[in-house]
Write a structure and sequence with these properties.
Blueprint (H helix, E strand, L loop, with lengths): L16 E4 L3 H12 L4 E4 L14 E2 L10 H25 L10 E5 L2 H16 L5 E4 H7 L9 E5 L3 E2 L2 H14 L3 E3 L3 E7 L2 E7 L4 E3 L2 E4 L20 E11 L14 E6 L2 E7 L4 E5 L13 H14 L8 E11 L6 E4 L5 E5 L9 H14 L33
Parallel strand pairs: 1-2, 1-12, 2-8, 4-14, 12-19
Antiparallel strand pairs: 3-7, 4-6, 5-6, 9-10, 10-11, 13-16, 13-17, 14-15, 15-16, 18-19
Helix pairs in contact: 1-5, 1-7, 2-5, 2-7
Bound molecules: glycine.
């Protein structure tokens, strides 16, 4: 559509903030910004969708710790600590439960290599001051009797919980609507810039939206929005994950559950997890594939997940397989999010959450609202400024201590 034919919103409807992307990160930003008194609009063809439709919802700050990601750990822990209060507020505002379950996590080893890997992870967790307990294989099976008899040991992490990301997205959508957030059901095709400042966006159908500030929160799509100047476009790429959903057997009250907590392992070098929900769903994930924008569910992906999950918990092959799906994690160069103001006045980022979007939802909402109101990020989020990727500006997220060994 030529610019002259583009439809514009009436200027009286110009909000303080336009959020591009209505996944959980865009929605939490909108909800928290509205809670701080800002007028907010969200542009998304299907708000409440995105990677959260696929995600398992593990809040795994401790069990997903990686060597070299100590600064990200601080943000992950800060967000995990906010979850109980965030859940209470969101369930009230969104009028529904979000499946926050304090179930803990058990990460197990299936062979000697896995065991060595878990021992290193345990040492890193302890050096990082985290709560994690080493268990023998027998102790693991006592906790989770459905585990394979060959389990060689594991880590009990009682502080890593779970939430249901689909319920989280649905509650955020209702909370936004109730807070007066305006929704434009269209895909942002281009950022509009005038006088050296972001002024809004043009949607794929030609609708033009203007706002005082724009937040780019479009998940993996954030890295390819037209109109964003070179050097400001976030270095975010899609990383495909395939996930299965099975149905857990109903057990009589008082009988042990099939699995009582999240169970994870590294099988053939890839992370595998089984997340049992109170709703009766068992989520099995996930592949990690650098295949661009492909979201095909493949026979190979399903086969590998089932094969590895069967090695870990042989009884899963008896369960009904109810859904297969694939989504795109928004990967960033250092696996950490990009939050807050960019070098383009009027444009802020909330993207690149990679494996931690669900975990980081509470802290992202609070940090972005603060940044939109005051122009600066709170201390907890400052290391995640997009400035760390700007040429000539120091401040990488990774902080490695000499004692750390790769895990
Ligand atoms: N955080 C789990 C995943 O990205 O697969």
């Amino acid at each position: 559509m030529p610019p002259s034919a583009a439809r514009s919103q009436p200027s009286a409807g110009r909000p303080d903030v336009l959020v591009l992307g209505g996944g959980i990160i865009g929605l939490v930003t909108a909800w928290r910004a509205a809670g701080r008194g800002l007028t907010v609009a969200v542009a998304d063809p299907a708000p409440g969708g995105g990677a959260a439709r696929v995600a398992a919802g593990m809040l795994a700050a401790v069990s997903e710790l990686h060597y070299g990601e100590q600064t990200l750990l601080g943000l992950n822990l800060a967000s995990a600590r906010r979850y109980p209060e965030f859940t209470r507020e969101l369930e009230e505002a969104g009028g529904q439960r979000i499946g926050y379950r304090r179930c803990g996590t058990l990460a197990v080893a299936l062979d000697a290599d896995d065991r060595a890997h878990l021992r290193e992870l345990h040492a890193l967790q302890i050096r990082s001051g985290l709560d994690s307990q080493w268990l023998t294989g027998r102790e693991c099976r006592r906790l989770e009797p459905m585990l394979a008899p060959g389990v060689r040991g594991g880590l009990r992490v009682d502080g890593d919980h779970q939430v249901d990301p689909r319920r989280l997205a649905s509650a955020l959508l209702v909370a936004c609507e109730r807070a007066g957030v305006d929704f434009h059901r269209g895909r942002a095709a281009r950022l509009t810039v005038a006088g050296g400042r972001a002024t809004g966006a043009e949607l794929a159908d030609g609708t033009r939206l203007s706002a005082g500030q724009v937040v780019l929160a479009a998940g993996s799509e954030s890295g390819r929005l037209a109109g964003v100047p070179d050097g400001v476009l976030p270095p975010v790429r899609p990383v495909k994950g395939q996930v299965l959903r099975l149905r857990l057997p109903k057990v009589p009250a008082g009988s042990p559950a099939f699995l009582s907590r999240t169970v994870r392992a590294v099988v053939r070098g890839g992370p595998l997890y089984l997340v049992p929900r109170a709703s009766g769903e068992l989520v099995v994930g996930a592949t990690s594939e650098e295949l661009g924008w492909d979201t095909t569910v493949t026979a190979g992906g399903v086969y590998e997940l089932l094969r590895d999950a069967h090695e870990l918990v042989p009884g899963i092959t008896e369960l009904p397989l109810v859904e297969t799906c694939a989504g795109l994690r928004p990967g960033s160069p250092d696996n950490a999010p990009l939050l807050g103001p960019t070098e383009l006045p009027g444009l802020q980022l909330a993207c690149g959450h990679f494996r931690n979007g669900v975990l980081l939802t509470p802290v992202t909402g609070d940090a972005m609202a603060e940044s939109l109101v005051t122009g600066s990020l709170p201390d907890v989020a400052r290391p995640f400024s997009p400035a760390r990727f700007s040429p000539g500006i120091p401040g990488p997220v990774r902080t490695r201590t000499p004692q750390e060994q790769p895990v």
